[in-house]
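Can anyone check this?
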Amino acid sequence: MRLSLKAQVTLFLLMFILILLSQVLFAKLNQGQLIGAFSNYQEIITEEKLVRELERDILDLQRQVLIFKDTGSDSAVKRFNTLFVGVESRLNKIQLGGRYLAATPPF
């Protein structure tokens, strides 16, 4: 059975609209996944920054312990306590998932 030209054009337009709507749907789904992936990436970068700062502070703590062993000064103890508070703060932020950017100034 042959379709008339009008029926063929209508069928073509309906198929074209169906394909276009499916493209829009897939684009919307992909955009949502991209936004989610970017959000996860930002959280990972924030956590990585916190871990790097934590590593730096732990090295500073070790250095302060060695300084205290050599000198026994009160300033080394104060510096150690200050660094220890910063380490505890960063550990808490990491345990919370790193959702908050470490805005603490370097010690």
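Reply from J.R.: I decoded it. Residues 101-107 have pLDDT under 50 and may be disordered.
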